[in-house]
Every structure is written in structure tokens, then in C-alpha cells.
């Protein structure tokens, strides 16, 4: 078996320390300042908006927008603006929960969430290419107190190695694609060296917010660690650009099945037409719509939440009206770590010896529900 940091005594010889020239951010060839807006002054200047509200929000929550996504905001306006630009409403949310999914209490070691018996969420990077204003991990992503280092990674790997019931690991953060390529590969290699880990999934928004980072080298590296799945995150059809298509194409060409986890956001995508267009566009760039999430109860994000009726109505206008391939599961991640529950429109009227139901065209229909010997 390959040497890997799966046991405490082996951490030192095989720890995944960063090489001295590497940082936990962008490749050194690309200066941070030319790639990202991170300061309120930069954003106020770029969008010609008042500085003070940005400064007030930035005192509590981090700011990062890639130059690429900034151009999209300028072209397409509000639906993308709302996702990226700090808003004073983030500070006036008394109903939200700091940790709505109870992730901290479900972490047996720092930066690893073990909620379902056979799956674990492994946080390997504290940074993202954009700090989305609606982020569920708003409490810590991009903040100095989200500490991810060699020790937390080693502790996570060790936990996975001694918990063979976990066969599926979701590598997330932050965004794992913000790691230097060599560090991400070391983590994947260490996961693959754990015999009980069958499936590796990566959650990343980089194909949407900084698609140039999905290089052929990255795709070639990922290809070595199958079965590997990637769930990316697009929320609006305007995010489906030629650059995003190229990024997703590279990953798909590496044999990686791609899914999309969209969040239903008020003022961004809360109409059937927008979601329908997004789902169709995703299929066009080889991404299978996976989840449409009802927004979590995260503090600082209540202005994004829709009612459940809005989501169910959107699903009614998807199911049967577009290819089943384009239909995600509308789901709610239960507060307190209860797990995901699907929120499916109601089609069944009664179930006995006959199933009575209503079709997607609102017509009554039935189906015999008996075993014929
Ligand atoms: S990319 Fe994901 S983890 Fe990062 S801020 Fe956006 S929603 Fe949160």
C-alpha cells in the first residue's frame, strides 16, 4: 500500500506540506491583484457604487470576485451582482443561524463532517474564487479562523482510514480547485490509498467563477483518481459562458461525470423560465443538473430565501416539460444536520388497488397496483 497519512504515527513522514514556493491561493504566475477584487475600495471603483456599505459588510464577511466574474456582472447585472456584491442586508438578519446544518457538532475531527453513515464531507481548502453572499459556510469560509493545514488534513485522513463505513468522500471547502495542483493531488492520492474509500467527489464553483483555472493539467491529474465525480455550482444561465463550457468540457473529457448543485435564490433565479433555461444550458455544457437546493437558514442570507411554494411551482413547470435529464432534485438540507429531503410536487391522489394520480398536464390518470400471479 502506498505510504499515506492515514495513521497518527505516519503523519510526519508523509504529511502533505506545501512546497516552499507554493501558497494556498492562485498560481504564482498570476498576481492576486490582477485576478481578484478583494478590497471594498476596488469594488466601489469598479462598479461605481458607494464605498461605506461595502466596508461595513466587509468588516464581517470576506469579499472576493474574480476579474472574469466581474465582467459577467457588468454584462448581465442584478442576478449575478446579488450573488457577489456585499449587501447591507447581510448584517440585518436576526433570524438566521450561524451554523444551520450543525456541521461543527457533526465534526469528529476538525474540517471533517460525518453526517450520514457511509459518507463524509472533507474540507480541504478555506478559500474560494468568489465569496458568494449566500454561502452556507459564510461563518468561516474565507475567514482567518477557518484553519486548514497539514494537521487537519492528516486528522481527516486518519479518521477516514479508521472508519471503513465511510465509502464516499466529498472533498470541499471552500473550493478544492483553489489549492495548488500538487497539494490537491496529494490529498486525492492519500484518499485513494484508503481501501474503504470507493467514491471521491469534489465540490467546486471554479468552473463557474474562475473557469480559466480548469487547465488541461488539472484534468489530466484528476483523471488518475477515478471513480471521481465533480459537482459544480451554477445558478443562472448568464454564467454558462464559452469559458465555462471549455472548463466543463475538459473535465468531462477526462471521464469525470459532472453534476450541478444550484441554489434557489430570490432575485437571482426564482422563476421557472430562468431555472428551465439554466438546466437546459447545463446539459449543453455536459453537466447533469443534480440538486436545486432550497436556501439554508444561514445568518446573513435571509434576503435570498424563497418560499417552498416557489420551488415546488418551479419543479412543476420542469417535470414533464423538459427532458428528465434536465430535472434536478429539489431538496432541503434539514436544519440541525437532519440531512437532505426531497421536495417533490404532489402527483399522487390516492394509493390502493389502483394508483390515482394527476399528470404533468393536470389530467387525472390511474394505474393498476396489484401483483398478477
Ligand atoms: S464557492 Fe461555495 S463554498 Fe465558496 S463561497 Fe461560494 S458557495 Fe460558499
UniProtKB/TrEMBL annotation:
Keyword 4Fe-4S found = yes
Could you tell me which residues carry N6-(pyridoxal phosphate)lysine?
340
Per UniProt, the enzyme's principal EC class comes to isomerase
Which residues are noted in the entry as [4Fe-4S] cluster-binding? Answer: 128, 132, 135
Tell me its cofactors: [4Fe-4S] cluster; pyridoxal 5'-phosphate
Entry EC number(s): 5.4.3.2
In terms of SUPFAM superfamilies, this protein maps to:
Radical SAM enzymes
Q: Radical SAM core domain: which residues?
A: 114-326
The molecular function terms in GO held by this entry are: 4 iron, 4 sulfur cluster binding; L-lysine 2,3-aminomutase activity; metal ion binding
- Respond yes or no to whether keyword Metal-binding is given for this record: yes
Under NCBIfam families, the record lists:
KamA family radical SAM protein
Give the similarity note: Belongs to the radical SAM superfamily. KamA family.
What protein name does the entry list?
Answer: L-lysine 2,3-aminomutase
- Read off the lineage from the record: Bacteria, Pseudomonadati, Thermodesulfobacteriota, Desulfobulbia, Desulfobulbales
